From TrEMBL:
Residues 48-207 form the Helicase ATP-binding domain. It catalyses: ATP + H2O = ADP + phosphate + H(+). Residues 234-408 form the Helicase C-terminal domain. This is RNA helicase. Belongs to the DEAD box helicase family. DEAH subfamily. Keywords: ATP-binding, Helicase, Hydrolase, Nucleotide-binding. GO terms for molecular function: ATP binding; ATP hydrolysis activity; RNA binding; RNA helicase activity. Pfam families: AAA_22 (PF13401), HA2_C (PF21010), Helicase_C (PF00271), OB_NTP_bind (PF07717). Its EC number is 3.6.4.13. It is an enzyme of class 3 (hydrolase).
Amino acid sequence: ERPQLLDDEEGGVIFFSAPSSAAGLYGYANLERQRQRLPVYKFRTAILYLVEKHATSIVVGETGSGKTTQIPQYLKEAGWAEGGRVIACTQPRRLAVQSVASRVAEEMGVKLGEEVGYTIRFEDVTNPGVTVIKFLTDGVLLREMMDDPLLTKYSVIMVDEAHERSLSTDTLFQRRRPDLRLIISSATIEAKSMSAFFSSSKKRPIQVPGDHIPEAVPAIISVEGKGFPVEIHYSEESFSNYEPAGDILVFLTGQDDIEAAVRLLMEDGQAPESRSSGLLILPLYSGLPRAEQDLVFSPTPKGKRKVIISTNIAETSLTLEGVVYVVDSGFSKQRFYNPISDIENLVVAPISKASARQRAGRAGRVRPGKCFRLYTEEYFVKEMPNEGIPEMQRSNLVSCVIQLKSLGIDNILGFDWISPPAPESMIRALEVLYSLGVLDDDAKLTTLLDPMISKMILSANEYGCSEEVITIAAVLSIQSIWVSMRGAQRELDDVKLRFAAAEGDHITYLNIYKGFLNSGKSPQWCHKNFINYQAMKKVLEIREQLIKLLKRLGMILKSCEKDTLAIRKAIVAGFFAHACRLETFGQNGMYKTLRSSQEVHIHPSSVLFRVNPKWVIYNSIVSTDRQYMRHVLAIDPSWLTEAAPHFYQLQKPYPAAY
Ligand code: ADP
Ligand code: MG
């Protein structure tokens, strides 16, 4: 009953926020009590103290101790989200991001996507300006870093599950803003090596006198949970049934064998007197539909026993209450790259001892449990490797190198990795990029992939218009596709009208490219239209290079047909920093750049030369008598905030007129 709850010794909860209904209050107080029972709660003050004092804090604690769900809330309660700042928490997997975010929203009694939100690829459930705790995959954070290298909107970044050591997290640790706090957390992190890494002088943020600058030396805190003992059973031992109640967690390798196992158990469950009839069989893997995920987390119905058949996502990323028995197949799916054959594969491979212990530990969450290992003790002791291989050392590094280069980190071979990749892999990646024309002789990114163009292409992949955007990228990477026509400006202008698109030059280039293809790539057609045939041949060539590169990065070529909105948004995603607003109308009106209020004009070669749309973005500037924008596209200013909210809200407030 409500009044009693308020008097309850643990009823202090209402101070944090105001639940709207009695039912909400009850659920909320309940959740609040659960929160306070988590092992991490005893360390709340200590963690907050460390984060305040140290640039980097390392939190180690076993799965289920409350690191992921609680620490971001503690930070918010302690004021780290005030003044428009955001607390970020990264997870290596999308499913974990969604699940943890919705749990935290529930605990805080808020709607997911408001104060608590999440971002994964293709899905942004945040409300900029409102969201203060944001869960995201580390890949997404790395992407944000490309637009905003100092990650200015974040006050604290918690890199969770750091033992997974994805390529992205390794990259994230490289650079930072002095006042940005980093929390590294994990169940099985080798805390010492991490601490040594951050203590090396290169990794420390610059020390500046002033009381808000934290100490560079990292702090380590261990939040012990009170796990229960787990009996280990190897496969020789016969076990006929699991008598006492408790859920079963089975580790298999991937969606296919999980679905197969679920099917088998379900069929068995149909048979009369079947052993599976009291079982609730549930699959768990990334990409599982939302409703099925929820089943996994909902309480086990009375008289039933849940059997969750999972990938290694349940190893550390997700906490499943009620599991008492674990069945460990000893395998997981892992990505492996062979630098000699240059082939990357997802293969089923034996897990490490660290993983095996972690899996067994899942059985001791609520009371003493049992773990059944489907391999022999001898194999465990003598053959199983102690630690897994960090992703960095078993991946194709092509996309990683591009990301680093786009972040302006050029000395890749001399780069200070936490776990350095194999030199062969690195050299292979550089060779591939060189042969694709992405790197030049000095191992610098060529214009083919300058950061803005790369960003445009990556975004095109998401907007489903990569087919069109690589054509645009190819055209932008050459001098000009027009035949130089000194003294014949009129004729050239007339010809341009045949292809001109109201949207601007980029879309015009697409029309020209289409015309060129329809003509059968004819030199005569080019001649007739004042188009440089050699330039068009070069465009075809660069397009081919880009196609190879995209395939290499696992992207799919896709055409958006006639939807130029998608194309224009992708372009803005790359070139948002080059936005201008029309200031004075007239023949060749004057624009000002939004970033620095510089005066610029549309170049006479642009199809928008006489049109002067109110808002434009450009590709480059040429200075002659004036500053001229080349390759100009008309835009809607709302696309800018959509593409780069941090850029247009924090650094440059919108001009009052908008
Ligand atoms: P850690 O990050 O230390 O592994 P978590 O913060 O993920 O721990 O989990 C703390 C507790 O919160 C767990 O014991 C679990 O009971 C609960 N919990 C976490 N996620 C969910 C969820 N999606 N649904 C229900 N309970 C959850
Ligand atoms: Mg966690």
